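Hello,

I think I submitted the magnesium ion job twice by accident. Can you confirm which output corresponds to this input? Input:
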Amino acid sequence: MENKQQESLLQQNKPGELMLSVKNLTKVFEGKEQSVTALENVNLEVRRSEFVMIVGPSGCGKTTLINIIGGLEKATSGEVLLEGSPVSGPGADRGMVFQGYSLFPWLTVRKNVEFGLKMKGMPASERSGKAQEYLELVGLAGFENMLPRQLSGGMKQRVAIARTLCNEPEVLLMDEPFGALDAQTRVVMQELLADISRRTRTTILFITHDIDEAVLLGNRIYVMSRRPGTIRDVLRVSLPGERNHNSLVLPEFLEIKKSIMDMLWAESNDAAMDR
Ligand SMILES: Nc1ncnc2c1ncn2[C@@H]1O[C@H](COP(=O)(O)OP(=O)(O)O)[C@@H](O)[C@H]1O
Ligand SMILES: [Mg+2]
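Support: Only one job matched these inputs. Its output is below.
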């Protein structure tokens, strides 16, 4: 029933080229004492240039899902297809950005961004041009020679985004990338990412537990249930104008936010009843 509903919702969307699809994905972590079903029969699709959000409560399996899509973890059953081909391990076609910045502390901003290009064997002059392009895109022009420890959290995350984008992945996978930032910086970074998405048309799959973040950024939002994580619903978001902090108080924004809150509240009530 739920999957039927999802399919019909998807068909209403503009049929762009299918980039990523997750089919009947289940993940069970086998332990000595007991096993944990983290994901159960998850289905989702991301089309080219779409900005897709997955929102769900802590522990519902979001990180497990994105790690399987990224090829860092194996599914128990089901599959992940990128442009129709099954994913079996990590690859440059999927760029990942996590909450931790994972920058090399001994390398300058520029060298951090150039690192992947250097590994690919791109000549120095070409790679510095490319790095510069992406540093400008994330608003870091002028900070090229600084070291990560000299940067704020938001700036470190800008470096991480530039470094991932300059490898020109087919899909950008983001796991709560702004979760460690203060509220104000978080909104600044959300505006930056909305702007990058608009300008570069990068396909983005972004995972969060933050409903505001999901509605502010997404073209579509998959809402997950608590563990074992399943897809409860998928919503299309259309807001007037560019996405920025002003969007947070639009009636259209609040209406979608309310319906997701209701869904997640129903979830936590069910959880309370179980206890
Ligand atoms: N390597 C692992 N071994 C066993 N259980 C795990 C492992 N990784 C995650 N889990 C469990 O799977 C569930 C989902 O975790 P996770 O994907 O991190 O959720 P989220 O990112 O939504 O907070 C949790 O109950 C977690 O404890
Ligand atoms: Mg997580």
